[in-house]
């Protein structure tokens, strides 16, 4: 984890960005998304919530910045860097040999039958494989190819283990693999190809 933060700090990343309350703000937004996924409101409640959310969105508008200034790519101290589009995970270990993380799919990741949506599983793999590829190559990479095999149902609201690692690198091509476990049970596994970006590559 500290190696990961160091690697980002060397590139100018700042884990204080967004301030001391940013993590709790994001957690409240995740809680809102959990409720929004399952709520069946009365008209009165819907109108009340719309009014509050409109007010809140107007307030937040005043603090919206561009993607390079947002905390969501620098806050390695927060679950999933505080990025609400990712299933929340905490990194236990990250270096050139691989990444170990604890990840929890929440109610807003529901696919059906109390299980995570397959696309959400792929989102989690993409990010953690990207991290493993970047740590291995010592440079930012981009997903060229990602294959997910779903081996058994992935539960919600359960701490799962992800292991992601680079198998080999050929020039700019980093070949990666990952597994997702609930205890001893394999829920899904993935393999992918990530490409090291050339200097200045958009
Ligand atoms: C250290 C700090 C830690 C940081 C942690 C950060 C965590 C954040 C993690 C966030 C993670 C989120 C990440 C995201 O979500 S990234 C977003 C999703 N991905 C994209 O949008 C990518 C779109 N595609 C492209 O931009 C280009 O195609 C890329 C850049 C991928 C390659 O275009 P480029 O012009 O640069 O290179 P090239 O075309 O000469 O190809 C190079 C080589 O690769 C081979 N090839 C290419 N594609 C494929 C393929 N599909 N299957 C098999 N092989 C393929 C190709 O044949 C060639 O091989 P060779 O002829 O050399 O042998």
UniProtKB/TrEMBL annotation:
Membrane topology note: Peripheral membrane protein
Main location: membrane
Domain Thioesterase residue range list: 114-185
Catalytically driven reaction(s): dodecanoyl-CoA + H2O = dodecanoate + CoA + H(+); hexadecanoyl-CoA + H2O = hexadecanoate + CoA + H(+); (9Z)-octadecenoyl-CoA + H2O = (9Z)-octadecenoate + CoA + H(+); (5Z,8Z,11Z,14Z)-eicosatetraenoyl-CoA + H2O = (5Z,8Z,11Z,14Z)-eicosatetraenoate + CoA + H(+)
Enzyme Commission (EC) number: 3.1.2.2
PANTHER family: ACYL-COENZYME A THIOESTERASE THEM4 (PTHR12418)
Protein name as it appears in the record: Acyl-coenzyme A thioesterase THEM4
